[in-house]
Amino acid sequence: MAAVLDSVRAFFAQNTYTIDAENPGDVVARERLLDRAMGPNRRRKSSEALRRGRVPAEGLALVARDETGHLIGTVRLWNVDAGIDAEGRAIPALLLGPLAVDQAHEGQGIGGQLMRAAIGEATRRGHGAILLVGDAPYYERFGFFAEKTCHLVMPGPFERARFLALELKAGWLDGAAGMLTPSGAKLSQAPIRRAA
Question: Cα 168 to the chain's mean position, in Å?
């Protein structure tokens, strides 16, 4: 019995992690993780056009860290305008992405915990809606569906069935139509260029 308990303890000890705010020291580890998880074409996606040259929404850049403090997961949310309403006013919203977990730590619920933390923090900060482009079967469990994005478009190619939204405030996206545009703060310095 003691050996079984030791095995269970060892399993949970190697699978512990915490959700934390991203800090400037996470930049290199986050970029490497995203390169591994998303592949070489990740910067060509329509969502990237909305993030390029911007900083994440205040307090909405989160990471998962293993027990030694190493970054093993990341999620960010970005300020965007989700088209306009019937009166022609821009509708502020958030764009989620990318969400990624290190391959060595997949299957531990880290992505789900990052999603719940991001949604909770966005709600606490008073945001009205979150949009994303992703696999519906995964994101529907968090309340994301395509119905609220049917009159919205991304700046570039995107798959309609993967363009999803979650209203944090009921009716926030009612009547929303048009193209998503970036609305968040711009980077104060030019992004670091990578060597080819």
Answer: 15
Q: Which of 24, 28, 32 shows the shortest CA–CA distance to 55?
A: 24
Domain ranges of the chain: 2-182
DSSP-derived secondary structure letter, 69: S
The per-residue pLDDT string of the chain (196 residues; one tens digit each, 9 = 90 and over) reads 444 334 333 444 455 899 999 999 999 999 999 888 887 777 667 788 899 999 999 999 999 999 999 999 999 999 999 999 999 999 999 999 999 999 999 999 999 999 999 999 999 999 999 999 999 999 999 999 999 999 999 998 899 999 999 999 999 999 999 999 999 999 986 555 555 4
CATH architecture of 2-182: 3-Layer(aba) Sandwich (3.40)
Nearest 10 degrees: Cα torsion 89, 136, 117, 27 = -90
Where do runs of H (alpha helix) occur along the chain? 2-14, 27-38, 46-51, 110-124, 136-139
Q: How far apart are CA 44 and CA 48, in angstroms?
A: 7
pTM of the model: 0.86
